[in-house]
Amino acid sequence: MLNRLHKSPCIGEFSQLSVLWVSALRHSIQLALRDETDHCKEMSNQKLMITTAGSKEEASRIARALVEEKMAACVNIVGAIDSVYRWQGKVESAQEFLLLIKTTASRSVAATARIRELHSYDLPEAIEIGIDGGSAEYLKWIATSVR
Questions:
Q1: pLDDT tens figures, 1-53
Q2: Is 70 left (phi over 0), alpha (psi -120 to 50) or beta?
Q3: Most buried one in 49, 55, 89, 140, CB count within 10 A?
Q4: Going by C-beta distance under 8 Å and a sequence separation of 6 or more, which residues neighbour residue 54?
Q5: Residue pair 103/45 in contact by the 8 Å Cβ criterion
Q6: Domain-wise residue ranges, the chain
Q7: Using H for helix, E for strand and C for coil, what is the string for the chain?
């Protein structure tokens, strides 16, 4: 391959040193990209938790407690939403408010317990979803905000 590049009239005259330099640069870029990807994966202990609340006031109370007590970096309140679910053998529906809670694996157990304490439902939703990647700065902010 080096000899073909060296003699190619379309590319011009390349020395073997130039070809090696380009190859080394390509390798450095690949390593840098791999390091950035690995960095995001190292920080993948962040979690997105989901719960719902029966009122905007309840959702706000839960959100504020989780952030103030450093169990969550941020809680988004979405709603009102329409939920359809099975409860005690019947299909029910209700308007609820969805909470999107950004936390870490180490704080999610405490956050789940706190949601149970503050919630009016007999069985509040508490679901964790692992965050597989994202903005390294944002993921770091989540981690530092819940310490």
A1: 444 444 444 444 445 544 455 555 455 555 555 555 555 445 468 999 999 99
A2: left
A3: 49
A4: 94, 96, 97, 120, 121
A5: no
A6: 2-42, 46-145
A7: CHHHHHHCCCCCCCCHHHHHHHHHHHHHHHHHHHHHHHHHHHCCCEEEEEEEECCHHHHHHHHHHHHHCCCCCEEEEEEEEEEEEEECCEEEEEEEEEEEEEEEHHHHHHHHHHHHHHCCCCCCCCEEEECCCCCHHHHHHHHHHCC
Give 114-131 pLDDT, tens digit per residue: 999 999 999 999 999 999
Q: Name the nearest CA neighbour of 51 among 147, 128, 122.
A: 128
Residue 74 CA neighbour count, 13 Å, CB half = 12
Say which CATH class 46-145 falls into.
Answer: alpha beta
